[in-house]
Backbone:
């Protein structure tokens, strides 16, 4: 089946230079940006119920830009002064660079994984083994990241700073896509919540990451595209490869 319309379950890019627009032009397809999930920050009241005191920690671990946003938001709402001595450990260089939105980068101790994998940060963290680490996560975090760190003798505490909720479709909203692109297991949950009788048929489904891919197959759906891979390091590259073979 020829792909004509692709749903990318992310917010619309702010830049016109998005690779998804390049795909639309290259293959003559329509790309629609429509998140299946949305992020809501925990209120200061809800955060305090976890009985986590941010001031008790000397290092913080970020695995998503969303976590960065909500950490600094909560600190501001709770009037917490972030010490200049706080150490930042980021699972990717992209997240580390994003910190510049909130802090003077050159004046802080910032560490980033060059591979995009949290596991590759562990040697750096073990050099600072006396620190107490705070791991900023969402409310649906499965605890695997904290288990990885604590299993390597790192003193870490997880704290939910934001929640992921389904971004429901309206009854009159068209659902006429030939490809669905997902970036988290929660996106699959939202799909099945919105469309409990969903039948895949000829619809191609793409997943970013092994957890997302597993949630698709666990739901009994067919996984057509998975990224990253040796041939396609990003989702746009994976879609490009698929379209080049199937259009």
Residues:
């Amino acid at each position: 089946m020829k792909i004509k319309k692709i749903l990318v379950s992310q917010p619309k890019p702010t830049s016109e230079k998005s690779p998804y627009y390049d795909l639309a032009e290259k293959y003559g397809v329509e790309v629609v940006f429509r998140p299946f999930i949305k992020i809501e920050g925990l209120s200061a009241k809800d955060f305090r119920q976890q009985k986590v005191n941010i001031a008790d920690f000397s290092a913080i671990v970020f695995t998503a830009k969303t976590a960065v946003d909500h950490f600094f938001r909560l600190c501001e709402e709770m009037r917490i002064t972030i010490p200049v001595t706080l150490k930042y450990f980021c699972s990717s260089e992209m997240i580390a660079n994003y910190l510049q939105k909130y802090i003077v980068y050159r004046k802080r101790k910032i560490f980033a994984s060059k591979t995009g994998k949290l596991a590759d940060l562990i040697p750096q963290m073990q050099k600072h083994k006396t620190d107490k680490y705070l791991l900023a996560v969402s409310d649906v975090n499965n605890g695997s990241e904290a288990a990885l760190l604590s299993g390597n003798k790192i003193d870490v505490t997880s704290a939910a700073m934001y929640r992921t909720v389904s971004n429901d479709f309206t009854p009159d909203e068209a659902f006429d896509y030939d490809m669905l692109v997902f970036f988290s297991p929660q996106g699959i949950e939202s799909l099945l919540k919105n469309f409990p009788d969903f039948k895949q048929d000829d619809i191609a489904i793409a997943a970013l990451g092994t957890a997302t891919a597993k949630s698709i197959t666990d739901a009994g759906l067919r996984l057509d595209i998975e990224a990253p891979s040796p041939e396609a390091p990003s989702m746009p590259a994976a879609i490009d490869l698929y379209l080049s073979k199937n259009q």
Q: What stands out?
A: The chain has two domains: 5-36+167-246, 40-164.
